[in-house]
Amino acid sequence: MPTLKYKMYIDGNLEESSSKDYFDVVNPATEQIIAKVPKGTKEDAKKAIDAARESFDRGVWAGKMPAERSQVLWKLADLVEQNADRLARLESVNVGKTIKYSRNSDLPFIIDNFRFFSGTARMLEGKSAAEYSGMGTSIIRREPLGVVASIVPWNYPLYIAVWKIAPALAAGNSLVVKPASLTPLTLLEFTKLAEKAGIPKGVFNVVTGSGEIMGEELTRNKKVDMVAFTGDTETGKKIMASASSTVKRVHLELGGKAPLVVLPDADIETVAQGAVVGGFWNTGQDCTAVTRVLVHEDKYEQVSKTMAQKAKQFRLGDPLNKNTDMGPLVSGKQRERVENFIQKGVEEGAKVLTGGKRPEKLKRGFYLEPTILKDTTQDMTVCMEEVFGPVIAVYSYSKLGEAIEQANSVDYGLAASVYGKDITACMKVANQLDFGTVWINEHGILVSEMPHGGFKQSGFGKDQSLYSFEEYTRIKHVYIDLTGQARKPWHYTVFGKK
C-alpha cells in the first residue's frame, strides 16, 4: 500500500499544519509506514474552533429546519454505505482489526447510527406548553449547545467518532473532531463524504496532532461549549480538570473492566463461547471487553478448560484475510503494555492456561496470542486495572454474594454480563451489578436505540439513543405573559400596594 499524505479539514478546506510538520502512521500488521498526517498546533486547533463558532453563530446548520438536517444525515449514511468496503479496508489497515469485523460490524453500525439520528433530528422538542403560574404560559425549548469538541480513541476511529458526530449534528451543533494520532485515516477520508452530503463549511472540522497540544486547546478554549471524549480514565480526569476553567459541559466514556458472572446452572459451551468472543473481539482492545470471568467453583475447571480450547482455535494473521479471527495490537507500545500485565499476573500467582506469547509464525506486526489466565484472584493487578488487550482472567467463587462483590470491586462501571439458565436469578444479579450496561447470556450487543455509558470512573453521559441526543442540547424556559397588564398581580410584593 503506497504512503498517503493527508491534510486536516478546517472550515471546508484541506489544510497543512501551521508548523508544516507531519507524523507517520503505521500499519500494525506490517510495521510499515502507510501515511503521513499533519502535526497540528495550538493555532490550528484555534482556527478550527473559530470556524465552528462562526458557522454556529451564523446559523448555517443550526438554523436549518430539522427536516433539512435529517436529509443531509440520511444522505451521509448512503455515502458511507456506498464507500463501506473502502472505509473498512482502510480501518483494518490502520488499526489492525480484521476485515470481517470492520466490514460486517463497524460499518453497518455506523450507517445505522446516521440513519437513526437522521430521524432523531426531527424530534428536537421540549415539554408541552402549559400554564403553571395562572398568569402566563411556560414553554420548554431544547436547543443545540453550540460548538462541540470531540476527542476520539484509536480502537474504533470512525465508529466511535460517529457516536459523537451523528447526535451532535442532528441537534444542530458545529464540531471540531480530533482522532487519535495512531489511527486518523478513516476520519480524514470521511470528511470528503461529509462535504459531499452537504454539511456546510465550518460546521464539521477535523484536526490531527498531539493530544497534549491539540486536546489542551479543545478543552480550554472558551468558544467550545462541550467536550465529548472516549478514552482512558486518566486522560478523562485531565480533560475534566481542563474543561473546568470555562465550566463547559463534559461527556466522558472512559475505561472498563467488564466481568462475566457465571451462575451454577449456566451452560458451559454458551459461557465459553460468549467469553472468548466478548474478550477477544478487536484483539481485546475494547473498554467493554470481557476481562474477568467469575465462575462458580463447581464449574470452574470445565469453563476454564473449554475457554482455553476455544482460545487456541483463534486464527491470527493478516487482518485483510477474510478468514482471520484476530489481528495485531495497535502498536508495539500497546503490545508491551499488555505483556507486562501478563507477566505481573504470573508474578502474583496466576497461571497462563494458554497464550501469553508472540506467535512464532508472525515475525512482523504487533501480534500477541489470545491469553487465558487461571488461578487468579480479584486483588491481582491484572484483575483490577484495564489491560486493553487479549487477556481474560478466570477465577472461582463459592457464594453468589462473593461474586457480585468481586465484580463490583473495581473502579470501573461500564459493562458486565451474567450467564445462567434461570432468568429470574440472572435478573437479580444484573440489578446488583454496578455497571451502565449488563447483558444476560450475551456480551457485546449494542444498538442505536439503546444508551451506552458507564458509572463510577468509567465516566458519565450516554452514547447512542435519544439519551445521547439530549446530551448535545440545552434546556431553555420561555415564559409568555397572558395578563396583558402593565402592573402584574404580584408586583405589590416589590412596589406599591396590593
Descriptive account of the structure:
- The protein has a seven-stranded mixed beta sheet, sandwiched between helices. A six-stranded mixed beta sheet has the order 10-9-8-11-12-22, with helices on both faces.
- 38% of the residues lie in helices and 21% in strands.
- It has 15 helices and 23 strands.
- The model has no long low-confidence stretch (mean pLDDT 96).
- The protein has two domains: 272 residues, Aldehyde Dehydrogenase, Chain A, domain 1 (3-Layer(aba) Sandwich), CATH 3.40.605; 183 residues, 3-Layer(aba) Sandwich (Aldehyde Dehydrogenase, Chain A, domain 2), CATH 3.40.309.10.
- Helix 2 runs antiparallel to helix 5 and helix 9 crosses helix 10.
- The protein is α/β, with parallel strands linked by helices and 498 residues long.
- The chain starts with a strand and ends in a 17-residue tail after the last strand.
Count of discrete alpha- or pi-helical segments spanning 4 or more residues: 15
CATH topology of the largest domain: Aldehyde Dehydrogenase, Chain A, domain 1
Class by helix and strand content? alpha/beta
Count of domain modules:
2
Q: What is the correct CATH architecture of the largest domain?
A: 3-Layer(aba) Sandwich
Compute the gyration radius: what is it? 25 Å
Keywords:
alpha/beta; 498 residues; 15 helices; seven-stranded mixed sheet; 21% strand; Aldehyde Dehydrogenase, Chain A, domain 2; 2 domains; globular; Aldehyde Dehydrogenase, Chain A, domain 1; six-stranded mixed sheet
